[in-house]
Amino acid sequence: MSHSTVPRSRSEAKTPEKTPAAPGGEKQPGRSGKLRFGLRFRRDRTLLLMTVPAVLLVLVFNYIPILGNVVAFQDYDPYLSENGFVAILESPWIGFEQFERIFADAAFWHAVQNTFVFFFLQLVLYFPIPILLALLINSVVRPRVRAIAQAVMYLPHFFSWVLVVTVFMQIFGGAGIIAQTLRQHGYEGFDLMTNPELFKYLVTFETIWKDAGWGIIVFLAALSSVSNDLYEAAAMDGAGRWRRMWHITLPALRPVIALLLVLRVGDALTVGFEQFLLQRQAVGVDASDVLDTYVWWNGIRNQDFSYAAAAGLIKGVVGLALVLTANKVAHLMGEQGVYKK
Amino acid sequence: MTPNAASASAPSRRSFLASTAVAAVAVGGGMPLLAACGGSQEGRKDGTTSGKDAQKILPAFVASSVVAPDIPAKNGSSAGFTKAIATADLKTSVPKKLGSGGKLTILSPFWGTPPKGDNPYYTAMNEAIGVEVTWQNQDGVTYDQKLGAVLAGSNIPDVVVVPGWNLMGRIPSAINAKFADLGPYLSGDKVKDYPNLAAVPTEAWQRGIFGGQLRAVPFPAPYVTDIAPMYRRDLFKKKGYSVPKSPDEFLSWAKEATDAKSKVWACDDMKWTAFNIFSVYPGSDKALWWNLRDGKLVNRIETEEYLEALEWTRKLYAANVVHPDAVSGKAGGDARNRFTAGQVLVYNGNISGWWGSVSEQATQKSDFDMAAFDIFGPDGGAPTLWAVQPANIFTFVSKTASEQQIKDFLALCNYCAAPYGTKEFMLTAYGVEGTDYTIKNGLPSKTEQGVNEVNGAYDYTGNPAPYVAYPDFPDVTRGIVEWQQRMGAFTKKTSFFGLTITEPSRWSNLADNFEQLEDDVVRGRKKISDVQQAVSDWKSKGGDGLRDWYQKLLDDTGSAN
């Protein structure tokens, strides 16, 4: 992604000038790698410089905090010292005890199970929808209609979960519009919001309503890069609407879909947080707890930091394995995936 | 354990209370003792401080009598003031501005919608006290969730308000580690620099001792339960209902009164009232969970009464007489709003909600009327109630605060603790005359602006002895105090009443998930047998050890009752 076209062509223009200046460079295969690295470094230094802020951010907020995971092997008490970091040094080490506690906790396995169920439902029910919506929007010709439709679809993304849940409650809750209308006609008992059985579909539905519209952006971008000439040529050859979609549009989207799929699978254990926390009481812990809320509940709410860190670490390790697997699968399918060696 | 219903009802200023009559009872009792347990691996101060050790720390008590109450405190109730005092007759309790003009940031729970930070009320308060307070308000209903994160950070606000029901898990250790010792400023006669604080009952100060040091300025409260079942008196009258007198009667009334088609349900979540009806030990403070029964300490979760209360609440849910939004719990919104909207006829909450709702509705619906009904026993008749702590909201100052900041904090508390009948009280409780309230027929009456602004902010930073004073609604004042006195007559004290106890951290997470389990059981998602299972797990994972620890503490301190 970072290889934007302009600097690349400039650096390519420079390279031939420099190469002759390094005498015998090609004759020394042993040093060529290093040399090439040096050259590449000099060639790309502007680009590298531009990534520094982002790298710093990731370093400070993602990599350095990883070190804090050591508390998973401790009985960490942040109040042993004035400073929570110093307290890490003073807390006793207890090996894998926290992990043993976690694996023996039925609530943890509930959370794992829920996480996977929600992920799977999101994958099947949610993932294709932005693609379909993007195709739909793309087929709208009038720019005004298109802009309005897009705006309407994007809007729910900016609502907070509190608002989304409240809106759903007003519509699907036991005292909501639907329930009250049904009551007027003699039917009792409609309450989608507090039904633990249907909760998984409810949250998927909420996610779709909130974020599916937002999700179309990246697909629309991919679609806009497809040259109109292709469609025109295909149409000239007599290809119908479906053929054009099958042979032009979808192949154009394929790398993006594969990329997002890999990312999504790697992120499988992150299915949402606030959404589940908000509706925790409504359907009960067993139905609503996911790994993130489990970690949060134990760590922040109950102040059992080591326990929560251990649970978080498990999540991280499984997540890493999932990314690697998904990426491998993408390579096997001939796609680029997230990264390539 | 969060009495959510209580929190949801906007515990508005000056409505938690306690009685001066019982002051010093808690301290009088026992042998000296400090950190009774001694068994903690961290060597930190768990246990409690009472007796002679507490005497060394506690501030002196100097009674203040500006105005005699119209209804004197009795049976652990608040004192009631029903008459308004003319502006010209108001006394001055803070003759000299004590604040240095410094700044304080205060983290505090807030039930409702906080007003803008630069409103006339805040400005006037800050000006009068001489301290520039910046409020960091967090939703009171989910305050427990924020508090842990804030305290675990290295940068905490200057002042932090902690409700007693949020002292779960390791929060008590956090308090001992993060907050300053106020002893050097308040112990013994030093408190006399702050006369209004000197008039705070000693039993409330006793509750402010955390980890062997006086760390909190307490919010004095009556020891009578603060959770009252409140009903719509106007709608009861209209429909011809009489107030239920037993759990069975309540259930059958509820079935009759529920009319879902018209969007009316009999009640909201009644769990906390059920605990009172069935005489379950209080859930608001962990030390109160224990009581000596037949020579053995028993925890509330082990009792038959606990299960009975859950079972009765479950029946209400199963009969569909509970508002569906209450089934959704916190996501469903505020119970008090459903009550004032007429969607539920009975809800339980902090009794101060009575005044809150009446004063709020007075500007809108003229026929709105409500009251708290008497808690009945499991078979009807008189209940056995258990005393709650004589102070259960605490305000702390960060250890990193400078001496000047601590003094400013105490100046703030001293100002807010001004008793009824003073100028300071009027400003704190009613705001700026002409803006936040007006005097009509000699009675102060809050304007709409006043209702929004003078609410929830300076409520926890200092309070006088428990009282109820709503001269604008003398009937509400009378209703609250008399309810407390009637219920107070049935109220007994559990073994650790009045003490602030820090449990050893290895057991501090043991009972964390019981509230969640209760909520699942009453909503029919889990069974009573799941509770029994959880209790036996609790015992084996440390509950019995905790029992021994409390027993030792009891041997050392002597019981409160």
Automatic annotation (TrEMBL), chain A:
- InterPro entries from the entry? MetI-like, MetI-like_sf, UgpAE/MalFG_permease
What membrane topology does the UniProt entry give?
Multi-pass membrane protein
Q: Where is this region: Disordered?
A: 1-33
Q: Which domain of life is it from?
A: Bacteria
Asked if the Swiss-Prot or TrEMBL record annotates the protein with the keyword Cell membrane, the reply is yes
The regions listed as transmembrane in this protein's record are 46-66, 116-137, 158-179, 212-231, 305-326
According to the entry, every stretch annotated as the ABC transmembrane type-1 domain falls at: 112-326
**Key word Cell inner membrane present in the record?**
no
Q: Which UniProt keywords apply?
A: ATP-binding, Cell membrane, Membrane, Nucleotide-binding, Transmembrane, Transmembrane helix, Transport
GO biological process assignments: transmembrane transport
Cite the GO molecular-function annotations of the record.
ATP binding
Gene Ontology cellular component annotations, sorted alphabetically: plasma membrane
| Location(s) in or outside the cell | Cell membrane
Q: Which family does it belong to?
A: Belongs to the binding-protein-dependent transport system permease family.
Name this protein carries in UniProt: Polysaccharide ABC transporter ATP-binding protein
- Organism annotation: Streptomyces spinoverrucosus
Its organism's taxonomic lineage begins at: Bacteria, Bacillati, Actinomycetota, Actinomycetes, Kitasatosporales
